[in-house]
Design a protein that fits this description.
Chain lengths: 445, 153
């Protein structure tokens, strides 16, 4: 099964990705073991030393951080990059003649190029910095939605979506008279692809789906989805928040029209994210937010807008965030996303096997292709209580609806407990989780 | 942080076997409570006799704290007047938010079994779980004040 999942993760675009492994020397503090081959296991001791927060104690126990799907930790390389910017480069970008402002602008635009390379986009004109995935999707829903949705049109999403890939479309549909439709999910958490295809109608104007489900970890068949949509002339937005940190993503290979992700889920700072948009689409879209930087000239009577990508970046951007994000991408690429995926997949298999063996524990989302996310319930114990008891043992998981109420409802659950695994997690931590869950069972027996 | 303080035997017992679980039919008022952060849901039905709460039931699903709190509340409020229920909630809220110290023995004694919720104060993320039922009860009681139910006699 692991071979099949790797094959699936490889189809996220590893082949064409120019960035993987190419930046080994550039990032201070990256733990690259000498002569690391594509298949060599991660040096976990060195990696964990890169993340000082992992040495914390919580309630007298060493922290076991199993909530990276909510937000990942930053390695010192990222913190140092942000600090270096703040201590020697900071000035406002795009407007100044003085040295600091030129260097700051250069650093910011180099970060943009770094993202372009990471996603294998054709041009930096296709890379828009935003606050996060949510803002990226709102940008498209507003700007593309305003000019392409009318009364009776349809937007197609799925029941797996995070609220960030539901609510912006609901708002756009309400404003335009278009209708939101959602493809159903099978009992193992896979998308019902034939039902999805049947929901593509002559009125469909946009498809927006998650690349990886945050609640269940399901890997969606995005290449097939793009093919089906494009055959009908329908563009596709992919919510990549849960994907980019876990397998290589190549937007040209995927041929998607929009791709969104958040910096803080790929070991970067919060408050920074990326919208990739196909240049022809972005060029035709009206500006979203107005203000400085997104203009070429302004008079009271008439304003002309800036070229791509700045047309969509109004106001002073999160400069240090972009620089931190570039450092995070360097860190990840130095380790290699295929190696990270293999490491996480091994943890997923271990966790699923150990958890499934616990009495009264039910795994939710058992698709053959999954990211290292384990959603589960325990008979007679509410996820909230599971979370509190695990917290008392120093273990951080997430409980609740995971901003994905429709999929919780579909499975008839008010909430689940969710453990997510990242590049710095270990097999020992899986065992700590299992021991913690036994403690939960003790308290509630 | 002592788990045993939160998950005391009284709490676990009331979670396992919640008292007054169900629905009153007919009811003088009902209200729904929902804690979106963790998925606790509550449906409360009440029957009044004048200004006193004669009977109450609750349905729903939620964490052990929310279920136990609703169960304990349902026992504590039967037969009490609106004013007494209001006063009781203030005491409970003080307990939940750590403003009723352990040495305030009179205050805690007046709470009876509700004092078992004292541990929640050490787990601030759970205060909303424990207070959900009280907010829902307040909403139900507010309904019984509507003009159509006020007696002109």
């Amino acid at each position: 099964m692991s071979g099949a999942v790797l094959a699936r993760t490889a189809t996220l675009g590893a082949g064409a990705s120019a960035g993987a492994g190419a930046h080994a020397g550039a990032s201070a503090g990256a733990s690259v073991t000498a002569g690391a081959a594509a298949g060599a296991p991660l040096d976990l001791a060195r990696i964990r030393a890169d993340f000082p927060i992992l040495a914390r104690q919580i309630n007298g126990r060493p922290l076991v951080y199993l909530d990276s799907a909510a937000s990942a930790q930053c390695p010192t390389a990222v913190l140092q990059a942000v600090d270096h910017y703040r201590t020697s480069l900071h000035a406002n970008v795009h407007r100044g003649v003085h040295s600091l402002s030129q260097w700051a602008t250069q650093a910011y635009e180099l970060a943009r190029e770094r993202v372009r390379r990471f996603l294998n986009a054709r041009s930096t004109r296709e890379i828009v910095f935003v606050r996060g995935t949510t803002e990226a999707i709102n940008l498209v829903a507003n700007s593309y939605g305003r000019t392409h949705l009318s009364d009776g049109d349809e937007v197609l999403i799925t029941y797996l979506e995070h609220h960030a890939n539901i609510v912006p479309w609901q708002l756009a549909c309400a404003a335009s008279g278009a209708r939101l439709r959602a493809a159903p999910v099978l009992d193992d958490g896979q998308l019902d692809l034939s039902a999805f295809e049947a929901l593509l109608t002559p009125r469909t104007r946009l498809v927006a789906v998650a690349h990886v489900s945050n609640a269940l970890g399901t890997l969606l068949p995005v290449q097939r989805i793009v093919q089906l949509a494009h055959a009908r002339g329908v563009p596709v937005l992919l919510d990549g928040a849960q994907a980019v940190a876990h397998a290589p993503v190549d937007v040209q290979a995927l041929d998607c029209d929009f791709y969104a992700f958040s910096g803080h889920k790929i070991y970067g700072p919060t408050g920074i994210g990326v919208l990739y948009g196909r240049e022809s689409l972005l060029a035709a879209m009206p500006p979203w937010q107005g203000g400085g930087d997104m203009i070429l000239s302004v008079s009271i009577e008439h304003t002309t807008f800036n070229e791509l990508p700045w047309k969509f970046e109004a106001g002073t951007p999160n400069i240090s965030g972009a620089i931190g994000l570039a450092a995070a991408l360097d860190y990840v690429d130095a380790l290699g996303l295929e190696r990270i995926a293999a490491h996480e997949h091994a943890l997923l298999e271990l966790a699923q096997a150990r958890l499934a063996a616990l009495p009264g524990l039910r795994l939710i989302g058992t698709a053959p292709g999954k990211a290292a996310v384990v959603s589960f319930t325990m008979d007679g114990v509410h996820p909230h209580d599971i979370g509190t008891i695990l917290d008392s043992e120093g273990i951080a998981i997430r409980t609740g609806h995971h901003c994905a109420m429709p999929i919780m409802e579909r499975f008839g659950l008010p909430a689940t407990a969710r453990a997510s695994f990242a590049l710095y997690n270990s097999a020992e931590e899986v065992e700590r989780l299992v021991a913690g869950l036994r403690q939960v069972r003790n308290v509630f027996s | 942080m002592d788990l045993k303080e939160l998950y005391r035997e009284v709490i676990l017992d009331h979670n396992r076997s919640p008292r007054n679980f169900g629905t009153l039919q007919p009811a003088d008022a009902e209200a729904n409570g929902h804690n979106p952060l963790c998925g606790d849901r509550l449906h409360l039905t009440v029957r009044m006799e004048g200004e006193r709460l004669a009977d109450v039931r609750f349905q729903g699903q939620g964490c052990a704290i929310s279920v136990a709190s609703a169960s304990l509340m349902s026992e504590a409020v039967k037969g009490k007047s609106r004013a007494e229920i209001s006063g009781l909630y203030e005491q409970v809220h003080a307990l939940l938010t750590g403003r009723l110290p352990a040495d305030a023995t009179d205050g805690r004694a007046a709470l009876g079994k509700l004092a078992a919720l004292a541990g929640v104060a050490e787990f601030p993320a759970r205060v909303k779980c424990a207070s959900l039922c009280w907010h829902t009860l307040e909403a139900a009681l507010a309904q019984t004040r509507t003009p159509t139910s006020v007696s002109t006699e």
